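Appendix C. Worked example: Glucokinase
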Amino acid sequence: MSEYALVGDIGGTNARLALVRPGSVELESIRTLACADYANLDEACLAYLAEVGVAAVDRACLAFACPVQGEQIRMTNNHWAFSRTEMQQRLGLEQFRLLNDFTAMALGMLHVRDDELVAVGGGESLAGSPRLVIGPGTGLGVSALVPAGSDWVPLSTEGGHVSFAPTDEVEVAVWRQLREQFGRVSVERILCGQGLVNLYRALAGYRALPAQFSEPAEITTAGLAGDALARETLSRFCRILGEQAGDAVLTIGARGGVYLCGGILPRIRDFFLASAFREGFEAKGRFVDYLRSVPVWLCTADYPGLLGAAAGLDNPLAGSHKRS
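Step 2, the predicted output written as structure tokens:
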């Protein structure tokens, strides 16, 4: 057995890779590679191993921002595509485990430090209950941790693609504009990087104002600087995320709590913590007390997906693997 195993968190833009020793989730030699610089996964992994001075590994657990159940894997937001069996052979692996990126994110929540979790409102975790993991980034990831004895089962879901359900006249107007553009309106059409742009443009139309910005970072920067329309966009974004997270808690009975992840929220941390997220989260009519009792944490860890991939190496309840 080689000294290290390879773990990775592969998104649409970047591939984050690291090494772990057997039985450990401590990440070593972390690197971030631009997916566009490599023809496919094997080229990136081999370049990484060469850079960190490791000749070969015989085990890998990689998390991908796409479905991973089949033999053929095709990335949703970049050009990488491969056969699991052929990729395992190219990398010379005895064990090749693949996880959905938010399945790995869920596992990672079990290993982040306490000081990397920021409480959002009150509530107390109910022992023995599932925990929701949700986060806006390039897309909207949704997973959950379900207790199974002394272990946890991470769920692989496509919960970011459920239908958007507007809750007031402004959201109805947003829904109408997005329906004209996309037909069906999923929550991911709003709760992700490009979704922030969609929301901004829809609010601009509703307010009969010019849409000055076309990139998520521009909207975020302008909103934090006080631009009225961009600020309304950020505020509405946070509230809709709360509404969606509350719905998901009711669906899976996640009274153990909610982990908020993804790349967007840490960048607007102070704004988010002062936002109407919790108001939207708890606004469930007869179930307001149910939601009020559920704790929510904002994850500020740098590499939770990599931690989850490391944990997934030896978790028999996570993902799937193939042996030669």
